[in-house]
Amino acid sequence: MKLSFRPIVQVITIAASATFAVGATFSEVQAATFSEKEIDQSKFVLVAAPVGTSGIHQLLILEQISPDKQCWSESGSNPVVIDPLLLNFDFTGLCGRSVDSNGYSIRVDGEDLGGRYLLQIRKTDTDMVLMGIPDSKAGGDQAIELGRTNGKTSGFAKINLDPDWRLTKRTFKKKTLGHVYISKGISAVPFPDVENDIYLKDISQAVALKFIAGFEDNTFRPLESLTREQLVSMILESLKNIPGVNFTMPSQASGNPYPDVAASRWSAAKIAFAQENDIVKGYPDGTFQPTRKVTRAEMMAVLKNAAIYAKSLGGLDTQLAAKQPPTNFTDTSGHWAAPVITEMSSYCGVASPLNEQGSAFTPNQSAQRNYAAAATLRTLNCVKADASSATPADTPTAPLDSAPTAPTPSAPDATPPSDAALPPESAPATPTP
Description:
With 433 residues, the chain is an alpha+beta fold. The chain is built from eight helices and 14 strands. Strands 6-3-2-12-11-10-9 form a seven-stranded antiparallel β-sheet. It has a five-stranded mixed β-sheet with strand order 1-13-14-7-8. It has a two-stranded antiparallel sheet with strand order 4-5. The chain starts with a helix and ends in a 44-residue tail after the last helix.
């Protein structure tokens, strides 16, 4: 299906006139049945697209589905000019495009607002602004700014979303749909298999902060055990969300950080970085065992080390001051990690009973992805609280680099974890991307 410039403009024109009808009739009940899925932002671009010669611009969202042919190119600045290359070839199966409210809508904190807001591009003297405009029947709602082109042009211009906004895909009963959300806040149910999970809220926030992700089949696998290299990756990615901390990791390892971790391994640079900064250590025999399942006790040791490291970056007191009374676990007495587990239970409840029930911590049990996301999020929030309570003179001002998407988790190690407790000085770590 090869389109010329004129047909796509006609499509956009029709979409502009149909937006009000579609938006006004979209049922809130229908919207409540949909969930959303996190997506690779680099595969999408929001465009202010001209509608004929009217001087009006309409939102167009392009998606790079296949890498075989580039769907658009970018040039210039203020604004960045978009050349929709899909106009020059048959883009079937290669590129996706959404041109009206059938293809995109606003979603906030897990609620689809397609029935309450229309998306329009409004112009100022120097800019073009993507706005969410309340439907005439949606009383009480206020207009929302979503993004800007940072300049004006009569042609196609790239729209940069404002902070806190991102793109997600609509899902329905485990199926990913073509509809694109301009989304803010947490996803109510980021993956179908966590809908009834006790850590649902924590998982949603962790996914939104991009330090843990799902798998390619749109599952999260909350009960799957975490490996040591996955824990390292997850925790380091989480630290990128601390305001004011200039946190940069090398993209490649200069050599093998451990005999069983080759420099070419996806996790090698992160493992080397964590080793150099006393966040993790290997085993007494000199190995790291990256695919070995990490225990709940080991995870507490790594989270403590990571919190201390993060606070040191911000020039803060590295003591992990108690935020709440410690938990008296019934099964940690005499365990090598007992002091660490007790300390982390008082540090914003990072250490908590298995499945948040009873009084047993089960220190030697493998850490599952759901609790790993929750414990890491609690650590991150506690460090943030420490930073915000510091005096202005003690608070770093360097902006934080945006956190990249963590790599897709590797398959868990099929070998059952050892029952032997790891000594404190050798405590490892491993988060999922």
